[in-house]
Amino acid sequence: MYSFPPIAAAIGALHTVVTGLVSILDPFLGVASATTAIVLLVVVIRTLLIPLGYAQVRAEQTRTRLGPKVREIQRRYNNNPERMRRELAALYSREQTTPLAGCLPALAQAPVFTVLYGLFLVREVEGEANGLLGHELAGVPLGAHLADVAADPHVLVFVALFGLLGLVAWASRQITPRLDSPGAGLVRWLPFGTLLIAAFVPLAAGIYLVASSAWTVGERVTLRRVVTRRDGG
Q: What residue ranges in 69-226 does DSSP mark as E strands?
């Protein structure tokens, strides 16, 4: 996937940006410059995506608010699928929304996240070694995996990473709405999947997961308050 020309070109452009940022930060932060550059890159890109995040949160709030009405229509017209479709269509029309309203912003963000995540996974960028992965954090190369340091004191860097990921995942679970629908309970545990992912990806990708997941939690909490205030809730 990351060798697909448009994605590869976007990763190359991001690589140029982040390595340039590392060079700027290096005189001030030294070995912490690469990690800081990753976090700053996440902050800048996620800031640019806030309008899409706002649309997604607003759709989520609307879906939660309409949930009881949708379930009542489904219960009432369970034996009349055509009437059920008409009633649901009328409900969504009155509310000026659609069942897919929250999906479109998420789909629009997906290519950006694919490129950003790919930057921290690929070993080569535009035919040359990914210079970002050669930098270190507390003595561990950003291109190292957990298995590379499992029997080494440097494994503590990954232990700290997993601790942060676990904390962020717990916070994400706390803010996930409790929905009365099939599979809703499983959805609230999905954030902990980042710990499993981090066990098999380079350290740089793990740092990205921490920064991006933490941003998501903060963004959701903030935007929900904004949406609620704007809608007079």
A: 124-125, 128-129, 136-137, 140-141
pLDDT of 184 higher than 60:
no
What pLDDT shows up at residue 185?
A: 59
The total number of residues shown for the chain amounts to 233
> What's the token pair of residue 200?
């098999």
DSSP string, 17-52: HHHHHHHHHHHHHGGGHHHHHHHHHHHHHHHHTHHH
- Residue 186 CB burial class (10 angstroms; 0-12, 13-18, ≥19): exposed
User: Exposed/middle/buried for 81, CB within 10 Å: 0-12, 13-18, 19+?
Assistant: exposed
SS3 185: helix
State how far the Cα of 28 lies from the Cα of 8, in Å rounded to an integer: 31
d(CA 224, CA 233): 10
Q: Tell me the whole-structure pTM to 2 decimals.
A: 0.85
DSSP conformational letter for 133: G
Q: What is the pLDDT of residues 134-179, one digit of tens each?
A: 999 988 999 999 999 988 899 999 999 999 999 999 998 888 766 5
Residue with tokens 């897919």: 100
